[in-house]
Design goal:
Helices cover 0% and strands 46% of the residues. It has 117 residues and is mainly β. The strands form 2 sheets. The chain has a 6-stranded mixed β-sheet with strand order 2-10-9-4-5-6, with no helix packed on it. A 4-stranded antiparallel β-sheet has the order 1-3-8-7, with no helix packed on it. The model has no long low-confidence stretch (mean pLDDT 93).
Amino acid sequence: HVQLVESGGGLVQPGGSLRLSCAGATFTRFAGYSMTWMRQTPGKGLELVSSISSDGKDVAYVNSARGRFTISRDNANNTLTLEMKDLKTEDTALYYCRRGWGIGPINGGQGTQVTVS
């Protein structure tokens, strides 16, 4: 069972920045998996934000995040990060991380709320 814990969300003004983290303390083979950030809003459902390969060399972003968000990972510490800059009101959502590439099931996390207002 993979348990991931998201953190770092908050309330920011448009144009602001946040740094989200995803910790997988019980995830024994973190370095062997691609990882993904997703976000969920009541009106739009679950949306892919960004994915990163197991070694960090390949990354992908949804068009709206490209150029503003940066995904990275620290395999030594089982941590996934999403740096978000120039935040817009439409980035407001509950952000989740998950194991794997692309959209898929949430791995037990509660998500971290990002509100841009």
